[in-house]
Amino acid sequence: MCFQRARSEQQRNERRRQILATAAAMLTEMPVAKISLNELSRRVGLAKSNVLRYFESREDVLLELLDAEMQDWIAELERSLEPAEGAQRQREDRLAAVLTESLARRPVLCDLNSAHAAVLEHNVSTDVALRHKRETKRALEEQARLIRRYLPELGAHDATRLVAMIALLAASAWPLCRPSEAMLAAYTADPALADLRMNFTDMLRQSLAVTISGLLARAENAPLGTGPIDPS
Q1: Each residue of 138-190: pLDDT tens digit?
Q2: pLDDT tens-digit map of 193-204
Q3: pTM (2 d.p.)
Q4: 106 and 216 fall within a common domain
Q5: Cα–Cα nearest to 60, from 140, 120, 1, 17
Q6: Residue 135 belongs to what domain range?
Q7: Residues 1 and 68 reside in one and the same domain
Q8: Are residues 107 and 156 in the same domain?
């Protein structure tokens, strides 16, 4: 491909979209750890130096993809977590199931989330960090709002804490539940080890169900006047 510099803002935005789309396609083929700026540049048809005109680093590209994936997930939750009637325990369990199943359908989001703090937040400028953290704050607030709409028994403070736990548990469970070829071979070679292999959906759903119940139980058992003030 013959490189032509994007001169207008529209052309620059289109070039950025092409780079992001190419990176997103690569993430359906390989994990974050194997995405390189050299391969991204080759696939998009630009020299590495030209890709760096639009994104300052590989991590900048991946952080923007993470923000986009998060917004898509929130849009799905907006449709899935409509206010519902029923016993509190039933709604707790369904909330855990909806969150888990929707994440399991989004391997790219799970992979980016698992690499978020350790990899993606490094090798970026303060400007990129600010943009990403502002997007993250908006996403967390939206998730907390949807969770409270479905399970209003969770106050604002605990809904926010649950959102943080979702990210933490999903980021931990994802790599644990995607063993290497050597680990898969070990499980096959010794069936007695099969119980050590973890299933992402089961592990995350159970962990979230326990977390939701625990937050509600602690709120119910808190002495009068010790809980956080609910601004709503």
Answers
A1: 999 999 999 999 999 999 999 999 999 999 999 999 999 999 999 999 999 99
A2: 988 999 999 999
A3: 0.86
A4: yes
A5: 120
A6: 56-221
A7: no
A8: yes
